[in-house]
């Protein structure tokens, strides 16, 4: 049994309720700043990868979309099927690297300890894995 001698529920104490509300607002504001930073960094994210022989070099964006491809001089001496396989494997490598970088950005900004951070990281990785799987089945 509670009495009116200071043992009341802290949620009902106006001062403590305002403090809790201010702390919650601070966390929400920080999450908004972190999310904006993450979004800005992901929007600018690009990864360039090359095969071991530097015959093929590709650049992908944060969505895993191919934004550039370059070929070395040696390309003219390689069978077209081998070139195609090299292009596809280099794109997969770039997408793997972009997924790792995106995960790092998410971890450093919003963190993966929050439900939002975990959900964003899972969505990014899942999308890039789906693209790699789709290309494997096409080839």
Number of helices: 3
> Order of helices and strands, N to C?
HEEEHH
CATH level-four homologous superfamily name: Nucleoid-associated protein YbaB-like domain
Number of strands: 3
Estimate what percentage of residues fall within beta strands. 5-15%
Major beta sheet, strand line-up = 1-2-3
Overall, the morphology is rod-shaped
Oligomerization state:
single chain
Domain module tally: 1
Structural class by SSE content = alpha+beta
Label the CATH architecture: 2-Layer Sandwich
Determine Rg (CA atoms, Å): 24 Å
| CATH classification, class level | Alpha Beta
CATH topology: Ybab, Chain: A
Contiguous runs where pLDDT drops below 50 for at least 5 residues: 1-5
Largest sheet: 3 strands, antiparallel
Helix content: 55-70%
How far apart are the first and last residues' alpha carbons, in Å? 73 Å
Arithmetic mean of pLDDT: 84
